[in-house]
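Marked as duplicate of an earlier ticket. Keeping the data here for the record.
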Amino acid sequence: MNQVLDIADNIATVQERIASACDRVGRDPSEIMLVAISKKMPAEHILEAISAGLTDFGENRVEEALSKIPDVMARADAPVRWHMVGHIQSRKARDVVRLNFDMVHSVDSLKLAERLNNIAEAAGRSIPILLEMNVSGEEAKSGWDAHEVLKSETISADLRNDIEAMSQFEHLSIQGLMTMAPLVQNAEATRPVFQALAALRAVLRSEFPALGWPHLSMGMTNDYEVAIEEGATIVRIGRAIFGERPRT
């Protein structure tokens, strides 16, 4: 089977599984945004996915996106939205703004938010962002430390103060939260992580109601169905759509 049909069939399978997960918990599949993670994938694969009906793509690395996004946009025959989902070094913030990402999922500190806001102000634009939360407690994970939320149903003073500060940034629009669950063989083991992010959003909606908090970006190829069952509005799927990434 050729690559075009593989990608189209893979997308159809993922969409069917999204619909099944929604059905299990009484949700509407239209509530779920499927972001295809195109890290290390050539522009041709992305164009095939666009032809199959996908509109949202996520990049992890600014350096890769600098050449790939303009290439795809010059050849795409349908609207495309781009999501920055990887860690952003402070020195790369200017490139993130210049690339006009439609959403940045990986804002993991007040310092980064402030830098993005200042650069966006100079560029005359506003950037929708998600705040990255470490709810699993893993030291290697980026984001604000929020792994105690399920036990206490409260947030730390530091997190509260940072969100208060970010809510005043006129060129960032806080749209919700993002997290990454641990990589485990049994997807069911990730459920507490997704429950924790949903619980955190509930607390933040109570403390900062004006922000709305519409989105939970959680769930990847290994665990997106569980994430949907726990309230995900955005799932980030790479391997299930494009296959294994090149190792180089």
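See parent ticket for discussion. The first helix runs from residue 3 to 25.
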